[in-house]
Amino acid sequence: METSVFDAAGWADGEVDPAAFRDKRLGERLRTMLKQMAGAIGAPIPMACQDWANTKAAYRFLSNGSVNEGDILAGHFQATRTRAAALEGFILVLQDTTEFSYQRRNPETIGAIGLAPSRRDENGRLRLHTVCGLLMHSSLAITTEGLPLGLTAAKFWTRTK
Questions:
Q1: What is the pTM (predicted TM-score) of this model?
Q2: 18 forms bridges with which residues in the sheet?
Q3: Range 7-86 classified under CATH 1.10.246.40
Q4: d(CA 66, CA 149)
Q5: Domain residue ranges in the chain
Q6: What is the pLDDT of residues 109-125, one digit of tens each?
Q7: Residue 55, SS3 per DSSP
Q8: Where is the Transposase Tn5-like N-terminal domain (predicted)?
Q9: Backbone φ and ψ of 18, nearest 5°
Q10: How many CB atoms are closer than 10 A to CB 49?
């Protein structure tokens, strides 16, 4: 049986392009965050970052108005192209739209993804509430054997109503 150890540092180095950011330090921060999060998959940001300074830096990065999804994903898209180019044969590109829902009192804080039934009113009619969140349409490249190579595209949006 073959055992493999995930190299979070090596993986993060290959998936981030610091040059995609206007300020190179932002690319380095993303690389650091990815290394921390890859070492604690599924953990909340404070647990993955392990100390207050790194947690605060992660939140500052994520709320930075000059950072966008294109900057964040540029290195990954390039790494996906490189992996695909190194293979012979067909590559399949699978597309899907995913909804990320978040509980918010005010839909304007994050955006809406749709309406959902919540409960019945005093007349027995179904009431609807706005589901807050983001939508993502992504394209995932895989080999014909099912090996994922990475994302080739991703678009994020919200609905106003």
A1: 0.81
A2: none
A3: yes
A4: 28
A5: 7-86, 89-161
A6: 788 888 888 888 888 88
A7: helix
A8: 9-67
A9: -60, -25
A10: 21
